[in-house]
């Protein structure tokens, strides 16, 4: 097989929908494979000087972000009140909060339960890893500050222990 023929064959496979091609003849063995390209969508905030035609597409995202920051401010106000009435168990990482070890299982703790330092009170899932959240304090669960399945941030209060 000549080099020109080989290059034509490579181009033909590359331009086609084939993901693999194997050719054997006259002592020549050619095995071509191509990986499918994976495209990941990334949302970014517009930079200064972006044309106005792009801005309407970002308006919905901006309003959602402002609503989220308003919710964060309300939660922060609630956090200050909680700190005044007890100790806070905070999330050590960003992830999804789970109050129970499984969907059909009883929650680790409920309001009014007595907890000891080091006792598991919840799970935060991050990157498919389940991380036990332990109480840093002895006391009684006075308040559960997040809902089951809710996304939590690093340092976000999860429980108030009185």
TrEMBL record:
InterPro entries membership: AcCoA_biotinCC, Biotin_BS, Biotin_Carboxyl_Carrier/Decarb, Biotin_lipoyl, Single_hybrid_motif
SUPFAM superfamilies for the chain: Single hybrid motif (SSF51230)
Keyword Lipid biosynthesis: yes
Pfam family of the protein (one): Biotin_lipoyl
Lineage top rank: taxon: Bacteria
The keyword Lipid biosynthesis is assigned to this record: yes
Single Gene Ontology MF annotation: acetyl-CoA carboxylase activity
Boundaries of every Lipoyl-binding domain copy: 86-162
GO cellular component: acetyl-CoA carboxylase complex
GO terms (BP aspect): fatty acid biosynthetic process
Pathway linked to the protein: Lipid metabolism; fatty acid biosynthesis
Keywords: Biotin, Fatty acid biosynthesis, Fatty acid metabolism, Lipid biosynthesis, Lipid metabolism
CDD domains assigned: biotinyl_domain
The protein's role, per its UniProt record: This protein is a component of the acetyl coenzyme A carboxylase complex; first, biotin carboxylase catalyzes the carboxylation of the carrier protein and then the transcarboxylase transfers the carboxyl group to form malonyl-CoA.
Protein name, entry field: Biotin carboxyl carrier protein of acetyl-CoA carboxylase
């Amino acid at each position: 097989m000549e080099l020109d023929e080989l290059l034509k064959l490579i181009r033909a496979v590359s331009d086609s929908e084939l993901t693999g091609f194997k050719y054997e003849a006259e002592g020549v063995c050619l095995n071509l494979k191509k990986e499918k390209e994976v495209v990941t969508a990334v949302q970014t905030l517009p930079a200064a000087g972006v044309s106005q035609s792009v801005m309407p597409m970002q308006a919905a995202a901006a309003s959602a972000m402002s609503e989220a920051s308003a919710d964060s401010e309300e939660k922060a106000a609630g956090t200050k009140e909680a700190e005044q009435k007890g100790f806070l168990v905070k999330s050590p990482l960003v992830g999804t909060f789970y109050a129970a070890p499984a969907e059909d299982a009883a929650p680790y703790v409920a309001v009014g339960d007595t907890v000891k330092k080091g006792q598991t009170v919840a799970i935060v899932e991050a990157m498919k890893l389940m991380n036990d959240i332990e109480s840093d304090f002895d006391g009684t669960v006075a308040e559960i500050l997040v809902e089951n399945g809710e996304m939590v941030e690093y340092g976000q209060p999860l429980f108030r222990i009185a």
